[in-house]
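Please, structure for the following, as tokens.
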Amino acid sequence: MKIFKAIGDFFGKIGTFFREVRAELSKVVWPSWDDVKRYTKAVLFSMVGVGLVLWGTDALLTLLMSLIIKK
């Protein structure tokens, strides 16, 4: 009969978990749609900027190495 108690405790804990999750999610301050758009643009521009810097660094180092090695 211990198995039935263990199963009941397990499912009781699952219910408690989801109640607590719902309570915590109700406390979250979600960003507005304008904030989401602004943050998305900032991330995209940052990614492009970092990509360009990495590409430029790679191209410059490739050029320098080819001048040093003289292929």
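The mean pLDDT is 93. The chain has two domains: 1-30, 31-71.
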